[in-house]
Write a structure and sequence with these properties.
Chain lengths: 100, 663, 167
Amino acid sequence: MITVYHYMGVAGILFAMGTYGVLTRRNAIVIFMCIELMLNSVNLTFISLSTHLQNMDGQIFVFFIMAVAAAEAAVGLALMITFYRNRESIDVDDMNMLKW
Amino acid sequence: MYDKLWLIPFFPLLGCIINGLLGKRFIKNEKVIGAIGTGAVFLSFLVSCKYFFQLLGDSVKTHENVVASWITVGNLHIDWGFLLDPLSAIMLLVVCGVGSLIHLYSIGYMHGEEGFYRYFSYLNLFIFAMLMLVLGNNLLVMFVGWEGVGLCSYLLIGYYFEKKSAGDAAKKAFVMNRVGDFGFLLGLFVIFWTLGSNHGVWTLNFVEISENAHLLSGDMMLGLGVTTVATLCFFLGATGKSAQLPLYTWLPDAMEGPTPVSALIHAATMVTAGVYMIGRMNVLFAMSPTTMAVVALVGALTAIFAASIGFAQNDIKRVLAYSTVSQLGFMFVAMGVGAFTAGIFHLMTHAFFKACLFLGSGSVIHAMHHAFHHAHLDDDAQDMRNMGGLRKKMPITWATFGISCLAISGLPFFSGFFSKDEILWWAFASSRGSLLIWGIVVVAACMTAFYMFRCLIMTFHGEQKTNAKAKDHVHESPWTITVPLIVLAGLATVGGLIGIPHAIDIAHLGNKLEAFLAPVFEHSQHLYKIEAHGSASTEISLMVLSVLIACVGICAAYFMYKKNPELPAKFTSKFPKFHRFIFNKWFVDEAYDVLFVNSTKKLGIFCWKGFDVKVVDGIVNGVAKVVGGLSSVLRHTQTGLFHNYALTMVLGTVVMVAIFILN
Amino acid sequence: MEIIFFYLVAFVVVVSGFLVILCKSPINSALGLVNTFFCLAIFYVMLHAPFMAAIQIMVYAGAIMVLILFVIMLLNLGTAARKRYTQGIVWSAIASLMVLVNVVFFLKRGRVTGAEGDVTAFMVESVGHTELIGRTMFTEFILPFEIASILLLVAIVGAVVLAKKEV
């Protein structure tokens, strides 16, 4: 029998992996993809709990997360294009102007 | 039908706004500005007259008209309310009547001045504030007016603000008034708090205070009765506004303002606010014999003290200013011995003859100024030593000035005679009066006659001492100036007939004023047994005595300044110290400078250089330096590298979630 | 039977997740991510949420991934030239392990409780998942829905403004 804990365990593993990716990769687009991975793990948590509790609210949340993720993708990628145009790179180590 | 009372202060406010906002750019024309200013006050006067006659025919004598609710907090309910009773009706007529005459006069007097519109705007604002003071049905509305007249006084004394002395005088008036206003506020709080907390009557309304005042009779505060404390505080307010000892020194300096202002604010209306206030609160004052005695004594001392200074002044306006202080002292004596009616009566007659005297002096100054200007001379247009013999050049001014001098000296059948003798009689015979007070006041009355006739003779009689070049350029003033003079002189002559004392009331006209004001004052006078005992024959003999004494003063002045003009100089050289003393006004200003002004200045400089610069600025700069130093170390944590931020954020989140889980 | 299928899909999810975070070429990472999305869609179906599975594939695997791949190719990114710092990897591994430990602790210690609704598997089958979502969305959540639409509009305008060479 598959319980809600199975799904949440998978979601937890995915979330930790996404965190690791965000912390180690330098390519901004890959970091972006890792964030998408984390978002998806959260989506999985929401939907599994929603089914478990027989309540629609969690799925509505997922819907809005998707909308936000889409908006984020559009703006984030546009930012990367702008940055690439100026620096010929999308390495986050080159994005270090904002410091002392 | 008293629901349009608010119209009375409304017109001057409207005039003030129109002249103040549009006068400089849009109206410009002096005649229009003057007409608006004068018209506004005249309209108020008409409305006041209507209500006055309505009140005369009405059996109920107290009417309130609440326009709007102002403050409602807890137990405190304060309205924008107006109160019409015989006392405020009389004051309305005086303020609006004398006010509109002085507005008319100002059109001629201020002709060609730079800030003509500003002057009329301030003057209308003053009338508005004064009417709020007079009409307010509670202490707080009165206080609004009280502060408002102070403000306008400041603005108008400092009207020639480019002159340093005028600015200083304005500041002095304002600061001295603040001292008094502080007392007024304290009194207000004492009344409100004790009535409210001890007896559950949370009110500032005059009618309610008067009705509930008897509740306070047993209450104590600071070892004195509550009423004594409260009324002493109110009296402190009155000494500030009405220029009594020890807060009188601002009034002579206030003569820096234009002369009509001196006539309106510093003689006829604003300075009498203290007297009016005591009249309004007569029930409270009557409850405290201590305060009454203080009021009478301070009034009497002020009367004689200011009169003595008036002996040696050469500036025509200053003589009148000290005379005003002295006459206000008479009014306070009246209030202090329980002769409320007499005090208000003298307030009214004084408004007539003193306004007339000031306007007359203004007419003289106006003429002198033009003459000097014409002859390109720099002489002082206010110094009486430059005048003399103006009687032929300015007959109307001379006649009106002379009539007013007779009135203020208290010669029979002029207005001042009735009001002053009423005061003297009460000081002598009242249950609250005493022989001492009476004696001081009689001497002061004699001195009044002396210095007023000295002033009259030095200005209008004898040889003309004006510089020969300017001599022939002195002319009588235009009609806008002379008409108010004639009207006021007429009032100064016959104004006393409304208050003929019973002792000499041969024609049985009756004391109309006393009967009219009785609803306001009778209650407290009955309740606290304030009355004048004595036979009619005593009263008549006292009258004869005071007339004789006034004649002595007049004759002395005539003898010294007309017959033997060299006598004053001889006198001066014989008693140089005494002359120097009164010429320098008893050195009171200097004493105040040493006692209060300099120490306050030093404290201010210490607060500035010692406390503010070193301590306050030191703390502020020190905080900034500490923060700057710490951040120059801490800012290295801001590497600008994405991974450092992300790692920190994740670790922080992990810790927070861990805490959440473990709990 | 079902549990075996679950474990199979879970295994694929984890493997493709590793692909995303470990591949040197961004293209490979992206393909791994697409695979993850598909597997999650399978999970959604198993959780009686077919509509969510559909939009998971359409929005994520379809729209967002296409956009990412498009940008990768547009910028012509090769494999990462520089090496990763070892110190950074150690710290990052510790941090993500702690995240995982947190999740495990949470699952062990916590119990799933909350307001139980009435949307049973039977009801989803009889009424239809799309209709259920639609009803909730357009009644109870109509205001957030409209706000989300405005958010998307802002994102579109922002993306255009940012990506244009000259405004």
